[in-house]
Each structure stands twice: as structure tokens, then as C-alpha cells.
């Protein structure tokens, strides 16, 4: 009740125009909820509001009625009894006369009339009285925009929901509407207006009814809007576009055949206007009207329409476009401009609607007939003048469109043209039973072109019709059937013609299109017999396998074959698909055999992949062929070290990994094939017991390619298949000398402390064992986390041993294993199961026995981490251990394990403590250049590189592709832990070398961190970033690092959030950038530095003004840079800075 | 100043198809790309559309400068630009020449000597214009004049965006 007391207060606050809109909205909401929850009945409310609804003050009365109206709009789903509704609608109906407070009455009427019947709606009588009051009282065009819109909505609602009530108004209704819509200009209202006309036209379909007499008046109002001329800019009325309006008007135009005498002449007149938009609109409207008005009414306009359409097509069309585009199978009509497309659409609509009459018009047209004269004059495409080409294309399109309109029209076109065209092409109509046709000397291009268009139309018709069988009996079809053999022979003859260079590309394109169309009729209703179909395929194959030198033509033929393939693949088991498999696919699969050397391998692969993509069974066959070749050649390599085979295998493997595997992933369900491939690789290497020793350098490349293919294959497999593969791999591993059984039964791993001399020695993985190990590593890298590796403990030790021997894949495999172990912690304990902690224990607690001297056989024992930081004597071993440790660290970092901290500490120690010789970096690098075996340096470099490995996204392993566990934001986390450490270390570092190295590591970390993380605290990082740039840019050894660091700086400069930090350090930044503008080792660094200087010039004037002399001095030097792009940037930069400088500095 | 336009209806030419610079993509980091004819022309026209002071057309469209009218010798640090005013009595010739000179001075290394000339026979007071354009003192004096400098800056303005 308390709520009720406040009612007056709420009403008051809504009615008061001085309140803010939000207050008014709140009070409306409150009242609505009161009524909804039945605290308040509508009756009480109305009684309470009585004074507001009847007061003589226009404004208050208006607000009061509006409140009631809007309340009803909010209560659309609340059931109301009919008495309430009746009295309310009666009230609003009466209020329509109150033009000073109209808004509320309109809203209220609309709300009541939109109610659904199940919650109580107004009666027909009430609706009728609303309509009467509407037409009596409302002067719609004198109202404001919003009220007009409401009025139109009300009218549309009346017409839509209460047609019976308003129909009885008869003429009054139509006149009322005419009056209401006269002169409307607002786009929103216009949309409604057009809809109203459409609705009213539907209400009076009777040609003698109320609308008949006034249709000319109504159309007069409508017609002046055509064509829609839309002057509104983009900023206003974004919700109404010209297209919407045009479409609504079109529907109004075509809403009743009664408009025909007015609409068609108007449209025809606009068709000849010079405005392209008006032309396109007219064509669209005519198409729509043709469908809606019916044939009888359109008949008398046929001739006028035909002559206009003809003119448009003849003038707007371009030259024939002969290449196959992707949708050519569905619609051989080519990419055209909108006008041509619309004209052709109208043509088709007319042909369909007019029952042959329109087609007769086309066929008897002089301009169309004239084309045969052109055919008589020119035979070769090259001879055609431009105008004739256009004409030919136009006629081709017209024939295509009209033939594909309906079965009857197709027959008609075939009867009128097909024989004549065949005649032109030299196929005699009388002797079709003769299978041989005389070889043509001069192919008539025009006839060929038209003939193909007609055939394409016939095909299109059959493809699009659902009941294929019925069209079999059609005349066009049987004509095509009779002549298909001769046509195919004729078309095929162009292939030899092109080889002999008798013919030109255009003829070839045309013939290919014809063959493509003939061979892609739906199976079961194809006019070509199986023999002819096979002939076509054979022709294509023989062209493709021999004439690869014809570049684009070759591609064209291949594309056509591809189309045929994907088409017949839709009919599995059909004769056609069998023929295709037999003639095309099997032949291609066989092409990879070593004896077939006609085509270059790259083309073969391109062809194989293109054809294979058309269907699963085809791909399977082709992959079979490729695999066979891979394994044949691999064994050649293994046994004889055949270098030619290496090349072949390389390109095959590359194709397998980059093209076929992605397709498998996309198509899905190819696991068996992938599994077979992976197992075959293992079989192959298992069988081959002796490795050829004569393998040369490129063997490493081959191993990499094999590993990549294996990795990608394993990655795509499911858990079960991966288990099979890993078991197989393990078994093969047992046969090698690396066999875990043989190597490490003890807990210590013996390693050699090798000296300097080994660093330069490139290790070629020539031995079979190393191949096996690398391949095993790549399998491990790609495993899913759920897959168990057999005998994990031994495998880990084995991989560690190989890691210390410099096998990077082994290190990556270790990292991947550790990374994926982390999710298994909640598994049931099995004897072979190893937890992450245990694995880490194994890795870090396994002792290496360092054999300083082979003869003595004893040595100190140490852990992996000690091995890295052993300071007694640097060795190659140490370098390898650092690399290994960094991959292990990466694995741990990705899954967010704490141990990674210890590992980074090892690296940092190396960076700091190693500098026993305190040489300046410059000298140090000089030394390094002379004597590349400086292991000290190599170890430090390795430690710095380790941070790159940790932070960067690797393609080879430990990414999502290879199922690695990646914790979100791990980079940001690592970055924020490392930054303070780097800062303290750098400030403490006492030698320039270790400082240099620390900066290098720092650069790796910061440049791989997402920019947003850096920006949030840019102020803190900039000074060190600049120091880093200065330190690293003293020489060109790390120019890539310098560049990536500079990119970080430029990222901060360009970002709005970094501006503040930049402004504070502006002086230092300019100093640093100025130094980098003559960084002679890398052009990109200079260019970026200058771009950064341009960005600096946007900073607050007072801050940068003191720097202008310095910058201009530096830039004037950069104007003489050896590289052009740097000079261009310098010119821009100079201008940017000169404009903030005083006049005297302009030069 | 003359009231009204000097050449009210200039002939506008189609911009010539720019010949592509054949840059080897994997070029040597330390290789020197010397300043050549095309680069100077680019400075003057391509990404630096100097506007005709009188018309909204660029000088390239009016064929006031062409690529062939640029002579450059990077070794000798010498560049000579010969331009053709649209009409013989064009009083804007000196302004155009001044713009060209300023543009080049701002864009070329300081070692360059810039020589700006009116094409022989294309201007009524050819000798006088040439003398004015290549007199260091007079150019410097012209640029001391704030009005003139503003005008030059306006002509060159869009070229830096």
C-alpha cells in the first residue's frame, strides 16, 4: 500500500518535463512493475491519473497520456480483460483527435493493437473505429518526424493485423493512405510508407476493387521516389541504407499487377537514363515485376524490354574471359559488372515468364542473327576486332542465359542454333554416324565459343533440375548425345593443334571448357558415353604428362582435370569415378616411379597434390605412390648413399609435410595412412643394418626433413596410434648400439671431456645409430601428454647422454618429455610410471663421470648443472650441456615448474663468472674472430642464447602444435622475475664482457615479451633498454639482437601508454637513437632508428626543443646514407624536426 | 602581382607509368646504392608532390619536370634539374625553381651542388631566371622573406605527409 501512496509521486515525476529523462524512465519502470505484480490495477491507475489525462494544459495532458501509452507498451505480455482493453482503446481512439497531445494516443493505440490474442487484444470493431478516427483526425504530413513514424507504424499495424476491419473502409482507406504518404521524405518513414503500399495492394487484389480506380493516384506518389536518390551522409541514419529503401520500394512496385500500366513505362524510361544506378535499379525492378505481374500483363512490353536489355548487354559487356574460375562448374557465365548481371537476370526471368514468346523475339533479332556474319568473316580469335569480340561474348551470354532458363527454352535454342554451329565447326550434320571427322584446318573460334556456351547451359539446366531422368527425353539432350562424340573429337584436336602451334591460347581455353562441361554432366544423365568420357580423360592426361612447357595452358588443363575429379567424386562407385581413378589417379601415382622422368619432379608433385585434393580415395592412391617412392629412395640413400635420391626424397618429404599432411588434418580420418607412414619409416631403418658411409654433407638436411615429416605425422595421430609408434620406435632403438640396455645400467654416465680441437668438427649423423636416436627424439617431441614412453628412466638417461654429445633433438625431446609429464601426476601408480619430480631427479641427480683422459679411465663425477658451470676448463661438453639445459628449462618454463629458476641461475652464473680474461668486448671479439675455438666465449654465448631458447616460440618443438603444455602468460611471468635480477647483476658486473653478455641475455628476454607487459612499467625498463642498445651496438656481431631490441623501443615510442615514460627519458633516447643512425652493420637498424626519431618529434615541444640541433646534425649525415630507404626516412625525419626548429635551422 | 591566373587553362598530362626499380631482395647489407636520376625525380615528384603554385596539379602532371630532365652525378656530388614552365611568360617560374631548389637542399646531403635551370627556349626571360635561381645570395635573401618562405613551405607541404 505504501507503494501505492507514492504513485502520485511517480506519476508527477514522469509528467514533469523539467525532470531528467533518466528520472522519468525510472518512474515509468516503477509504475510498470507495480502493475505487473498486480499491486496496482490499470483501473486504479487510470482513476488516480484522471486529472493528468483530462487537464487543459497541453503539455501535462500530453505527458499523462504518454505515460499511459508507454505503460501499455511495457505490459504487452500481461493478460488484460476485454472490458479494460475496450475502454482503453476507446479512450485512445478519441484522443487521436487531440492533436496537441497526440504522441501518447499514438503510442497507446499501437501498444494495444500489437497485443497478441492470447493476452487479450482489441476487437475488429474497435480496430475499425481506430481506423476511422485515424483518417478523420490525423493530418500525418503536418506532424513531426517521430509522430509521423508512429502514425505510419499504426497504419501498417492496422493493415497487417486487422485487414478485415479496414477493408470495409474501401475507398476512404486508399484515399486516406494517399493523403498520409504524400510528400514523405524521411528515410525511416519512407520504409514504412513503402510497406504500407505493399500491404494495401495485397488487401485489394481484385482488378475491379477499390484500388483499381485509385491505383494511378497511389502510383503517382510512389513513382516519384524512383530511382531512390539518397543524399544522407554516412553519419546520419546509419540504420537505413539506400539498398533497404530501394528494396522496399521495389516490393511496393511489384505488389499488385494494377500498377503495371504505370510502373513498366516508368521503368523502361529510366532504363535509358544515363545514370548507372538508375539502370541497375530499373533492371532489378523489372525482374521483380516480371515475376509478380504475370506473363499476360508483361506480354505487351516484351519488345520494348528486349530492345533495352539487348542494348545494355551489348554495350556493357567486355571481352570473353576464357579462364576457368572457381565457380565455373556451377555458372559458366563469368565475372561481370553488376549491370550485365542484372540485365541477364531480367532476360532469364522474361524467358521463363513469357512461354517462348520472348525467346522467339531473341532468336529473330537482327543483331543476334548478325553474329553468324561475324562467324563467317573471322575464324581465329586473334583476328576478331574488339567490337566483334564483345558482340560474340554478348550473344554467348544471351544464348546461355536463355537456354538455361527452362527445359523448353533450352530445346528451342538447341533446335535453332546447334546444327548451324556444328556446321560452322566442320561437323557435318548428315554424317554424324561416321565416327571420324575430317581434321579441321581452321577451327572456327566463334562457333566453338557459342557452342560451348549452349552446352554449358544444357549442363547447368540438368545439374540444377532435381529429376534428372525427365530431361533425358528432351530434344536438346538427345541432340547433344548424338553429336557428343564428334564434338569431343573436335575439341581434343585442339590439343595437338596447340602443340604444333597452329592454334592460339583462346581456342585452347575454349576447348578445355567445353570438355570440362561435357564431362561433368551428372552421372546417370550424361550425354557422353563411358568410352568418350575416358577419351576425354586420356586426352587431358596425355597433354598434361607431356606438354608441361606450356605454363599457363598446362595449369589450365590441370585445373580442368581437378574440376572433373571433384565432380565425379560426388558419385562414388560410378563408372565415371572408376574411370577417373583408373586413368588419372593411378597414372599419377605411378609417375613417381624412378623410371618415369618425363615431367620435372616439382610439377609432378603439384599435379599429384592438386588431383589428390579432389577426393579421399584419389589422395589415398596418390599418397601410396609418393610413399613408395620415398621409401625406395630412402633405402637407396641408406645403402648406397645415392646423392640423387637424396634430392628426390627431400622434395617428396617436403611436399608430404607441407601439403599432404595439412590436407589430411583438414579432411580428417586419415590416421591409418599417417600411422602407416610413420611405421614404415621405422621399418625402413630397422631393415637396413648397414649404413652407407659415402653420404655427403646434405645428409643432415635429409635427416632434418625426415624428422620433420615424422614429427608432423606423429602429431596428427591419436593416442592409440602414438602408442603403437612409440613402441615400434623403442624396439628399433633396442637394436642400435644406443640400446638403453647396453648403455646405462648404472646411475653414472661416462662422458669425455673433449678439448678445443673438436669444436670445428661438424658432426654428420652418418651412423645408423644416430639416425635412430634423432628419429626417436622427434617421435618423443610430438607425442600427446597421455602417451607413455616405455622405460622412461632409461630413455631419459639415454637422451641426456646424447645431449652431452651435442644432439639438439635429444635435448628438445627431453624438454618435451618433462613438459608433458606434468599433467600425469594424478594417474594411478604403475611400476613403469614416472612422475615429473622423479624425472627431474633423474635429470639433475644423474652423475656424469668425466674422463679427462681416456687411458686412465677415471675422473670426477658431477651433475648436469655442475657440468655446465664447471670452471676448471671449458670444453665442448660444456657447450652441449648448456644447450641441453636450456631446452629442459624451456619445457619446465612452459608448464610453470619452479625448477626453471635453478636452471636460469646456472646460466646467469655462467654469464657473470666466466669472464676470467677481462678484455674489452672489442678485443675479445677480435680474438674470437681469429680463433673461433675460444670455448670460454662459446659457453657464455650459449648461456645468453639459452634465454632466447627459453623465451622464443620454437617451430621445432614445445609448441601447441606438438601438444606441449603451455601455461598462459608464462612469458610475462618469466619477464617480471628476470628483470630485477638482470638489473642488479648488470650494476654489479665488473667486466665489460660479462656486462655485454648479460645485456645480450636481457635483450633476448625483453624482445620476446609481449609489448603490453613492457608498457605497463615502461618507465623502469627504458634506461636499461637504452644501456643495452648502446652496449650491444658497439659491433655488428649481434646485429639481429640490436634490431629486436630497437623494435621494443620503437614499440614503446609508438604506443600511447608509453608516452609518459618516453617523455621522461627523451634526452637519453635521442642520444641512443642518434648513435644508431650510423650503425653500419644493418640497414634495418638505421631505418628504424630514424623512424623512431620521427616518433620522438611528436613529443611535447618544450621537452624536445633542446635536442633539435643534435638530431638535425645526425640526420644531415643520414641523408648521405648508402641505402636508399634510409635516405628516404631521413628526408621525412629532417622535415619533422626542421619544422619544430627555428627558421635559421631550416637549412 | 598580376591579377588573375597566368595560365588559366594548362594542358594536363597523364602521369607516366613509373618504372619499377629492380631491387634484388637479398641484397648485400654493405652494398652502396648511389643516388640516381630516379631517386632525385622521386624526391621531386613521387612521394613529394610539389604542387604548382597556381593549379592543384602536381608538377609531374603538368610536365614541368620529367625524369629525363634530371642529371645527377653522385661521384661528383652534382645535380642539375631542368624544368619547363607551362607558358613562356610564366611569372611563377622563379617560384617553381625556388621550390625545387629548397626541396633538393632539404633532401640531399650537403655535399651536393644543386643547379636549377629553365629549359632552353621555354621562357621569355630565361637568362634572368637562371641567374636568379642560381645566385646563392639571392636565394638566401628570398628565404629570409617570411612571405616567400611561407609560400614555398605551402608548396612543399603535402610532400612530407
Strand order of the largest sheet of chain A: 1-2-3
User: Going by CATH, what is the homologous superfamily of chain B?
Assistant: Fe-S cluster assembly (FSCA)
Number of domains of chain B: 1
Q: Please, what is the CATH homologous superfamily of the domain at 1021-1147 in chain A?
A: Leucine-rich Repeat Variant
Oligomeric state of the chains in view: heterodimer
Uncertain spans of chain B: none
Main sheet of chain B?
A: 3 strands, mixed
In CATH's first tier, which class of the domain at 1021-1147 in chain A applies?
A: Mainly Alpha
**CATH C-level name of chain B:** Alpha Beta
N/C terminus separation of chain A: 85 Å
Looking at the overall shape, the CATH architecture of the domain at 1021-1147 in chain A is Alpha Horseshoe
Q: What is the makeup of the main sheet of chain A?
A: 3 strands, mixed
Average pLDDT of chain A, rounded to a whole number, is 80
Proportion of residues in extended strands of chain A: under 5%
**What's the total number of strands of chain A?**
3
**Backbone CA Rg of chain B:** 16 Å
The strand order across the widest sheet of chain B is 1-2-3
The chain-level structural class of chain B is alpha+beta
What is the helix fraction of residues of chain A, given as a range? 55-70%
